[in-house]
Design a protein that fits this description.
Blueprint (H helix, E strand, L loop, with lengths): L14 E5 L6 E5 L5 E4 L6 E4 L4 H10 L11
Antiparallel strand pairs: 1-2, 3-4
The protein binds zinc ion.
């Protein structure tokens, strides 16, 4: 069945791109809040990432009403 209305975002995540220092492949991570070691999906080498700030992520989620305020039809 097809729902007749349109559904707005109910939650959102911020994706951050980390470029592999070995091969420049970009790894996508959804708001990594803790330091971590990432293994590159392309060259399989590993590197440490700087985490992102939790309050900054929460601020953006709040401003955008968890994505709802970013819906194109308002
Ligand atoms: Zn790589």
């Amino acid at each position: 069945m097809l729902y007749k209305g349109v559904v707005k975002p109910g939650k959102m995540a911020l994706v951050f791109m980390y470029e592999c220092p070995f091969c420049h492949y970009e790894a996508m991570l959804a708001s990594p809040l803790d330091p971590a070691t990432v293994t590159c999906g392309a060259c399989k080498n590993s590197f440490h990432i700087a985490p992102v700030d939790r309050q900054t992520v929460q601020y953006i989620q709040t401003v955008l009403m968890n994505g709802r305020a970013a819906a194109a039809d308002g």
